[in-house]
Amino acid sequence: MKKTPIDYNIVTEKLQESGLKSVGKSSIREIKKLVDEIENATDEKFIRMEMGVPGLPPAQAGVEGQIEALKRGVAAIYPDIMGIKPLKKEISRFVKKFMNVDVSPDGCIPTVGSMQGGFAAFLMLSRMHKGRDTTLFIDPGFPVHKMQHKVLNLKFESFDVYNYRGEKLREKLEAYFKTGKIHSVIYSNPNNPSWICFNETELKIIGELATKYDIVIMEDLAYFGMDFRQDYSKPGEPPYQPSVANYTDNYILFISSSKAFSYAGERIGMMVISNNLYNGHFENLANYYANDQFGYSLVFGTIYPLSSGTSHSAQYGLLAMLKAANNGDFNFVESVKEYGKKAKIMKKIFLENGFQIVYHTDIDQPIADGFYFTFSYPGFDAEELLNKLVYYGISAISLLITGSERSEGIRACTSLIQMNQMEDLEKRLKQFAMDYPVK
Ligand SMILES: Cc1ncc(COP(=O)(O)O)c(C=O)c1O
Q1: Phi, psi of 25 (to 5 degrees)
Q2: Are 409 and 367 within 8 A, CB to CB?
Q3: Could you tell me if the CB of 264 is within 6 A of ligand 1?
């Protein structure tokens, strides 16, 4: 019998009971369920790094704004499907204050989480041009966006950006764009799962090519302002959250409130559509919608049948948070810096025990400390490593489900681990390194 930090026999038994062939090949939710069961059976706490959930309390301004709205009775009333007017104005103001980007309130649409924004955008973009039927994913990426494509029966292609950073990105993107079948591109920045952040040169390349080939860029800013190497927290002052919006007028931004405002439970996000795209007319849309205007079809032909807008009270919650942030009364970046502090400590512990960071630089700079990081261990692929780590009370997911080509890579999320668990992490990784010495 092996002596591992979590009882070897119980882990093996729970694994068998779960019916999972391999932890390394399981989905995030399957891993969560398995770890819940092992924790219950052993009374030991895992270092849980599998799920990307906020680990902080919700922004107070939002909770108060939402409660007040509920007390006023908004729950009884359908909200406008394009979003309530004051919120649309405040989103537009937020984008100006924190990105220095000008977008009309018309194109600022609250959605049922960023998730719905993506779903609605994919539907629209795939119908914009006759003969152009493919989305390009700059991977690694958020697996649910691909799941949405599969559900909608939409085509996509993808490449791992690991070997195409900086100027190399131009040729790679252009090769896809020249095929004539790409209608749009999606990536997240900072990136889930790798936490790479595109620099201005890369954003400029993406923007210039989008304009040249008339391709829409979907920039997923789920981790808005969370590249803590820079201070993006001051409204109306540089530096601003970097964005492709500075380099093309053909874009949709998805700004989630889930992580930046710890508001995941209320399922409210923002879709911000450039003026040019919102007001644009596209002949092919008339085959599907009453109108060929992009913004009109999005609101009245897509958001309407999907959900008739999003929760009325959550819109007031978001309004209150944005107002406080825009007015400089609420430093939302400061309140999520905890993730960066934890990442720094965790990465140090991993590195000291023979592990390596997989996506380790933004070209010439070490990767930022934030919500996620990626790691590997010499001699193991991701599946083998995850299968072993579960006996050491550590759970995470493989990068393979994110479109990464780094088969050795694992994603670690920093949100759920508590500062007082760092000692446990260190002890467990030390034992792992002793049990599997690097040859
Ligand atoms: C890259 C990325 N996009 C979108 C989302 C979903 O955001 P929301 O909770 O606003 O739907 C997430 C959540 O984890 C994410 O990581």
Answers
A1: -110, 5
A2: no
A3: yes
Residue ID of nearest Cα to ligand 1 atom 14: 52
Give yes or no for residue 295 CB within 6 A of ligand 1: no
Tens of pLDDT, residues 122-168: 999 999 999 999 999 999 999 999 999 999 999 999 999 999 999 99
Sequence ranges of the domains in the chain: 8-56+335-435, 60-326
Distance 114 CA to ligand 1 centre (A): 6
50 CA to centre of ligand 1 in angstroms: 15
- DSSP string across 108-120: EEEESHHHHHHHH
Question: What's the topology of domain 8-56+335-435?
Answer: Aspartate Aminotransferase, domain 1 (3.90.1150)
Fold of the domain spanning 60-326:
Aspartate Aminotransferase; domain 2 (3.40.640)
Angle between helices 422-435 and 337-352 (to 10 degrees): 20
Establish whether residue 353 lines the binding site of ligand 1, counting it when its CB lies within 6 angstroms of any ligand atom.
Answer: no
Instruction: Assess contact for 241 and 98: CB atoms under 8 A.
Output: yes
**Bridge partner list, 254:** 220, 271
Pocket probe mutation, ligand 1, options 32, 188, 256, 266, max atoms within 8 Å of Cβ: 256
Tokens of 328: 């400089």
How much is the pTM? 0.96
